[in-house]
Sequence to fold (334 residues):
Amino acid sequence: MRFFNKMCTSKARLDGKTVVITGASSGLGKETARDLYARGARVILAGINMEETNEAVEDIKNNPPSWMTKDEYKNNVGELAIYFLDLRSFKSVRDCAKNLLTNEAAIHILINNAGVLMSPSYERTEDGNETTLQVNYLGHFLLTLLLLPKMQSSSANCRIINVSSAVYIFADIDFDDINLERSYVPFRSYAQSKLAIILFTKELARRLKEANIHGINIYSLHPGLIFTGIARNSNRMFRGAAFCVCICDNICVKKLFFKNVEQGAQTTIYCSVDEKTANETGLYYSNCGVSTTYRKANNRHYAEKLWNLSCRLLHLEPEENFSTFLKTVSRQML
Fold:
């Protein structure tokens, strides 16, 4: 029996809905894709490794989620599609968005799931940003802005789900050195990116409301403790991590405190389909429910300041008129 393990109980169908999931070739993203595909959605797996993503598609097609039998799975599923997306490149993000806008009639749910844990050494992307910051946060910031107009015209009930982590509580945003060029520590970089995701969620919800743009709700979440291959490499994160991994690798500890990937995907699925969350926006979730945020995550000034800095890193001028701003962002794809 695992502690803190709630499952999404919604039976909602997604027939006729289109879902975009970044990083869906493995882990939480793949399990989320499996569940939403079983609900009848057209699920788009956006990722960098096409071979791995094709393998994920075959696995999803052949293996239903635990709540559905194989016979039911044969007749009630949706569609699966693949798009190339490299979050380390803003050009790739723009190209992917352009392809989605051109080829897809609508986008109803966007799940910003992809992420990297950390690099033992400092790395920059082709755009000049620290890799963890760009992959986990800035790339998703740009993708979301580019897809917002399509979502706005798709339905009166669209959702954007941003996968964060409880480690945000250890983070701060270094506005003078957000790429941590002078003070890079792998764990600090990762935690900062997860705090940025929560601040972005709250700020986007606020801007949409002030612009009188309705029908697009935004959620951020902590999926829970999932002991994967990433965790085994976490000795690069901080001192003592190797000892923690040794303790956590104990089978009894894992059963008590950790989730498998299907269980870890439940809060993402909950934010994507649950009927109650259709009336909520800008909130943070854990274990299939609203959770309280702490410290810097509650600082509205921080959220606005981060928004403006993010725009500058994307060579955008933040404008007070949000609708005009989205048109400016869209012109970057031309």
